[in-house]
Fold this protein.
Amino acid sequence: MFGFLRTLGAVAVSALLLSFSTQASPALALDKVTVAGWSQPISEITNLLAEPDKGFFKAKGIDLGYVPGTGGGSAIQNMLTGQADVAFTDPASFYLALDKGEKLIAIYNIYPQNVFNVVSPKERNITKPEDLKGKRIGVYSLSSGTRQNLQVLLHQVGLSEKDVTIEVTGLLNFAPVIQGQVDATAATDTGLHVGMQKGLKDINVIEVKDTLNLPSDIFVVTEETYRTKKDVLKRFLAAYRDSAAWMIAEPEEAARLAVTRAINGRDEATNLAIITLRNASSVSETTKAKGLGHFDPELMQKGADTFKQLGLIGTDLDMGTLVRSDLIPE
């Protein structure tokens, strides 16, 4: 009996001490991970912007930060200068940075589908890449994927930027093409949707994916970050995957949250249309087979080889060593 009471007393004391310990110990600190974006906080990245509402990253022990940018190149630059841990960038910017000697690793395929295009009023008679010769063409910025994908189109038909006039028009800005200040503008599918809402009509659209269907955006980190922060990155990617899956499953909820979270999100119907487009670009045959975030290594290699062949980069890049999937959750 006494032995039983002593045991019972010990259990009670242990439980009491555990209770005191739990009450006294502070909450576990979150690991800060800052993403360098290619854009301002716009509706198509609502799955990131909804963190205060949904807490996908906090649930994985991540304190999420976001640094806006003016294109994929600026996202990488902001990461390299220490303002962020992860770059939300595009393959073209990735290739160009590697060509300059930067030590980078691609760790997640955000949007496997190429969503870039070149849009022009029908009256300009621009129906194929060859027709761009001698034309004025708008891009979001000189460091954006719009410019780099335009370069791919031009080079595929024996043209270069010397054969056209590049005009920086700003993010999602179709006013110059509507007003006739440029003949065409390089954009994305979501940008085109917004442009059509703002009066862009009777247009021709050249889809870059018909030339080279590279992913639109990928997560990139430095080799050092990849080597030293694998646990944090795994949790970050797990949280991002959960947020992307949520936006795919609940686009209407995402559209409502974008009203207050995105700088361009005041119209819920527009948010829903943009989010639907972006959800569609998040999946591919590869992601259907392996899960969100997985790369098609052969396609990434084809992109690097094409950039080399077109003279956009001068280095042979081995995507087998520069694209990793080991941090993507099972």
The chain has 15 helices and ten strands. The two ends are 52 Å apart (CA to CA).
